[in-house]
């Protein structure tokens, strides 16, 4: 495996001004706590935390990441029938080429959240195949950022960022944290790169419909709305193949309903805040006493 480390600096904080979609969580505004390794991955005996989680703010003194906030995106508020198809965990042999073949044949754009170490080892799989697509950061080794120190989380993102920039030729603008975990240093590390965090509004339920693929197609086509972010994977357990082998009917079903497939950045550019009624305050006043 090619583990050569690219020693480029992380993206300059505040390097971009970008229209953001709905959903927000700042590194200072949200302090979700993720448990460390424990029973069921969350709790120790009698429901107590097994060990302290990483902190959302990495230092005791004054600290401000990038432009001072990190947005968490589940989708966007738009009246346009736009959808962002996203794939996590690749690139991997057999799986990723299958996805690219379908997307090329159907002329569909997508966003791939790439694992840096896998990208470095399998760079040939994406050469010449990412022109219409977007690349996002899914860490260097698919590590749970919420259980790492700030410095180790930043290193996971830095190495993946550099590999994506070098191999794909595009700087990532979004982080999708492995397992969707937002706790601890996920936010502070994202803030150090000026990333927003992209989650999802609907995901493939491969295990649920493994033995009934047409129902999975119906589920995705029937429940995807304007501004949705769809989560799929281009590697993993074999049950995930039920989604990849049925991408064509999903794509054609959504197109028949008038949907257009866009990259995540294109989806964000289409976002629109809902109009505020005249005289309405931005947020409710706090009651005291």
Folded structure, characterized:
With 289 residues, the chain is α/β, with parallel strands linked by helices. The protein is 26% helix and 11% strand. It has one domain (65-269): TIM Barrel, CATH 3.20.20.370. It contains eight helices and nine strands. The strands form two sheets. Strands 2, 3, 4, 7, 8 and 9 form a six-stranded parallel β-sheet that branches. It has a three-stranded parallel β-sheet with strand order 1-6-5, covered by helices on one side. The longest helix is centred in the middle third of the chain and has 18 residues, at 150-167.
By secondary-structure content and strand pairing, the structural class works out as alpha/beta
At the third CATH level, what is the topology name?
Answer: TIM Barrel
Number of strands: 9
Q: Which percent band covers the strand fraction?
A: 5-15%
- The average pLDDT score comes to 82
Low-confidence stretches: 1-52, 280-289
Largest sheet, if any?
6 strands, parallel
Number of helices: 8
What is the H-and-E element order? EEHEHEHEHEEHEHHEH
Write the CATH homologous superfamily: Glycoside hydrolase/deacetylase
Question: Concise description?
Answer:
By secondary structure, this protein is α/β, with parallel strands linked by helices. It has eight helices and nine strands. Helix 3 crosses helix 4 and helix 5 (213-223) packs parallel to helix 7 (247-256).
